[in-house]
């Protein structure tokens, strides 16, 4: 157990076998009836127990986050691979094998707390490092760029993507008029919207999702040498996605799909692992690229700026209480440690203001740092006092600096003793409301992204754009969007125009670039594995060798669930689900080992087969299937007849060469 988990244990309360008390510790003799004048009379004001209980209930919900409201989280540990003191003096990166406790919150961006996990959206990937020098928050997304370049436009973007204000529709969706009106009229979003339309926006799980710091930061070493830096989280299981039809169905079948997946895998010991990498650009090389390195709508192509891997994070413990930890955790890009500093990225500069402001309204005041999940593992001392939710009991008369009563303590610490010092950057200019001309190329990297996609990914982007823009009611907005896409690729725009019923682009031509970055493609660099994938075996009384099938799969670290027509025991195995209580979209592959005799069960089985086939997942038939009424061909890619060949098909993942699939 790491130091942060030990600290949290101090705040845990085991209420079992305890007397009921008020919050002041007074034992309560009655909790069924309020205090009244007579058994049928009015409740009286002196009933302090009722008032305390009801007041707490009335206030037990805090305002949800404006963005990233729907999330889930876990504890873990970060282990450093090497001494990185050549690039940063951050202590948690200073020694090979050094371990630091972490807390990670994953989230969707647009939807409310009650929305579904698998909507098309950006995902948050926020990590709190409880370092010996204080808390460091790496507040990231699963896409490396953003919709706007300057934080002053962030409220506009969020207003546009949120449910429309006149009817509060639609929830957790970007497929509506105001979002696409914003995109068409704020074309700095062009690159980000390509990522948003790609399979990155519908990840298979939080365990198979990259994270990116998005903004440009600085690393500073002990000698004062600085590098611009971008942060990357790379999942050890590789990056995997859903298909759109599958994502929509999962939203209905299990809206908690991603949080359940994370929770269950940690409980089962399948601890998610991510490697932390950085891209580095020396100060003197700031202007040596064909893009502005401070522009948050641009990536640093990994082929030009390689990623250096610094360590690995393992998530190994679920939260004990969702509200106290996941809901009350407060992240802030301004929570840094010596050796990590900021750039003049205008989106980052605005985030440094807005995060504190957000926590003040959500968590009730300035003392959110004292909540157990937010407390650093190192001591903290300052002259701040009072305020809502104060927990520290400060002793003595001093709450100011400078002072003589306490020998001028607490007092500042020199940088040589660990005091934080900002990088001394020379800044010279006139106060203006303007944006650098180097930020004005909105389409070159958007086209680079498109050209870097495989044919399957391009097909998915066209389908996604057609769905999203096709939901836009105003024809003129659809036309504007098509004209914008013509700057990226004319054929893409023409196909979109055909699909959404507007005129093809006439005079606009795509930007002239043939540059590609294979690192941005999900399918160009796949990771093949069976580890922690989830498989359903369809069984009945006729199924043979259930134990052998299950054992063979589990030996490959595959999670197995048995599904049948009813809850029953089959060969000493209890069936996990019926075909009514589970769904094929919740599994990475299906093994059919049953011969249902009745037509109703056979029809449900064929639904499982059809859905799995249409979503390009592996199918194994250990019995002769009745495929009447399906479009499944036994010889198609990923459709196999043995457990061993199924494992290989599962290792590959999706099998796109299925001409009859309609997913």
TrEMBL record:
Q: What does this protein do?
A: Decomposes hydrogen peroxide into water and oxygen; serves to protect cells from the toxic effects of hydrogen peroxide.
Q: Which source organism?
A: Ureibacillus sinduriensis BLB-1 = JCM 15800
Name the InterPro entries for this protein: Catalase, Catalase_AS, Catalase_clade2, Catalase_clade2_helical, Catalase_core, Catalase_haem_BS, Catalase_immune_responsive, Catalase_large_C
- Give the GO cellular component terms, alphabetically: cytosol
Query: What GO terms in the biological process aspect are recorded for it?
Result: hydrogen peroxide catabolic process; response to oxidative stress
Q: Where is the active site?
A: 68, 141
What Gene3D superfamilies does the record tag this protein with? 1.20.1370.20, 3.40.50.880, Catalase core domain (2.40.180.10)
Q: What is this protein called?
A: Catalase
Of which family is this protein a member? Belongs to the catalase family. HPII subfamily.
Q: Where is this region: Disordered?
A: 1-38
Which part of the chain is the Catalase core domain? 21-409
Molecular function in Gene Ontology:
catalase activity; heme binding; metal ion binding
Which reaction(s) are listed as its catalytic activity? 2 H2O2 = O2 + 2 H2O
A Pfam entry, by short name: Catalase_C
Which residues participate in heme binding? 65, 105, 154, 351, 355, 362
User: Which cofactor names does the annotation list?
Assistant: heme
Query: Compositional bias (Basic and acidic residues) spans?
Result: 1-17
Which EC class heads this enzyme's classification? oxidoreductase
What keywords are assigned to this protein?
A: Heme, Hydrogen peroxide, Iron, Metal-binding, Oxidoreductase, Peroxidase
The cross-link 3'-histidyl-3-tyrosine (His-Tyr): at which residues?
332-355
Q: Which EC number(s) does UniProt give? A: 1.11.1.6
